[in-house]
Amino acid sequence: MGGKPKKAADKRCPKCKKTFASSYSMKRHLKKKNKCDKRSVKKRVAEKKARRKVQNKAYYNRRKWNISLARMPTSKVLDVLLSEIPGTSEIVSLNLAERLCLLKQNAGLSTSDTLSTQLTTRLELLNR
To answer: Which residue stretches belong to region Disordered (predicted)?
Structure first.
């Protein structure tokens, strides 16, 4: 029986030092989209932590303002938030018209940025 002798070193990933059953499985491991080196793993952990932080903050704000936890567009969340505040019925209708104008103007741009800025400005008005 010929062939190259199999050693553990031939089947060990040079980056994460994980040993595989075959050199083929090690090659598949190295071809993956998510790299296994320490820098990439730390970056993925940091991104996951940031996503979790944003989700927790959104959950807290929705519970605080009695907004449904179901998935809904940001514009609807803004409307629910504004409707919770007493004496803002006319502001809600003005903001809806204003938002429609902004969406028409920024058709080529990202609308999530404008909605998030609207939300922050309205929350600042509430805190005053």
So the answer is: 24-53
